[in-house]
Amino acid sequence: MKRALLTAFVFLLLPLSSVYAQTVPLEVWVIGASREPGGRIDPEILSLVQDFKRDFAYTSFELLQKRTGQVDQQRPFRTPIPGGRDLNVALVGADQKRVELKVTTSGVKTRVRIHRGGSPFVVGGPAYRDGVLIIAIFAR
Amino acid sequence: MTSHCRHQRSLSTYVDGELKASQVRQLEAHLTGCDDCRLELANLQNLQGVLRRGLQDPAVAAPLWPGVRARIEAGRPPGLLTTWVRRIWEAGWERPRLSLAGAAVMAFLILSVPYLLWELPVAKPPGQLLSVEPGQGDVVVEAVETEPGFRAMVLTTSERGLKVIWVVPQGRI
User: Fold this and answer.
1) ipTM for the complex?
2) By residue range, what is the domain housing residue A104?
3) Using the beta-carbon criterion (under 8 Å), do B121 and A50 form an inter-chain contact?
4) CA distance A52 to B158
5) Is A14 at the interface with chain B, CB within 8 A?
6) Is B144 helix (H, G, I), strand (E, B) or coil?
7) Is residue A79 part of a domain?
8) Looking at beta carbons, which residues of chain B come within 8 Å of A96?
9) What are the tens digits of pLDDT across the range A78-88?
């Protein structure tokens, strides 16, 4: 009887473990911004870079890479980014609407809270070729 | 309900001898002044007498019995589902711990399924950035720490208020 109850108890905990091991899908866009004459903008990132074009003195925006992955509290999301750097995103906490992330990349460590499916968190500035990198992190 | 109605309804119980002593006293007091109830009581007692005599009289009961037995035997056997439900029900009473554990499992599963469905992350297709509802796009920067040799600024874009951490080597700001 005890064995049967123990088995039932373990079985009951299985769905709970999946709740605690919640994963958050991420999407990372790495954009190369420069002041090339002519100002070329990748159509795929047009909506995002409208803001950057207005506020920063860059004319050309190229989507260098787009990575998707997921992060949970045991496994951070790591990806190499152009320029021989790494991007590391760790999950601090999450609920249905928001996530709290710890983002580490060249020169900076930061902790941010963003909405799932909402605006991205953006890190910019690392030098790349004749311009800079702009990294946008979306939580889905 | 009036006092008369209440007494009238308890006449059958009175005839069967199942009323409490206090109720018997109340009913008998009512009967002294109520012709209707006395008449109904007489009818009930008469009917009870007829049935009792009939069942005790073999001449009356014997012809009825074969018909009763035939109707019992003609009854269909319980279906498979009924048999299983009955077995589980009886087993449950014989093993209360097991049935309690089973009930707990069922309750947990029933309660956890909607919760799990509610918690599952739903990935939105890429390119939905501009459809963010007002107030849903906020990014809150909790902390910024730079490595030696770097400086960082937290900027907000003028159009959509995107939060940008701008990192530059020291000396370039």
Assistant:
1) 0.80
2) 22-139
3) no
4) 9
5) no
6) strand
7) yes
8) 118-119
9) 999 988 889 99
Q: Do A119 and B129 touch (CB under 8 A)?
A: yes
Q: Is B112 exposed, middle or buried (0-12, 13-18, 19+ CB in 10 A)?
A: middle
Give the mean model confidence (pLDDT) for residues B66-79: 68
The length of chain B is: 173
DSSP state of B114: H
The predicted-structure confidence for A29-63, as pLDDT tens digits, reads as follows 999 998 888 888 888 888 888 878 777 888 899 99
Secondary structure of residue B3 in the 3-state scheme? helix
Tell me which residue in A109, A116, A119 faces B162 most closely, judged by beta carbons.
A119
Amino acid at B31: L
Structural domain total, chain A: 1
Single out the residue of B167, B169, B166 nearest to residue B155, CA to CA: B166
Tens-place pLDDT, residues B143-152? 888 888 888 8
Closest alpha carbon within chain A to B165 = A123
Secondary structure, 3-state, chain A = CHHHHHHHHHHHHHHHHHHHCCCEEEEEEEEEEECCCCCCECHHHHHHHHHHHHHCCCCEEEEEEEEEEEECCCCCEEEEECCCEEEEEEEEEECCCEEEEEEEECCEEEEEEEECCCCCEEEEEEEECCEEEEEEEEEC
pTM of whole model > 0.80? no
Q: Is residue A6 part of a domain?
A: no
pLDDT digits (tens, 9 = 90+) for B99-117: 888 889 999 888 877 766 6
Please check whether residue A101 lies inside any domain of the structure.
yes
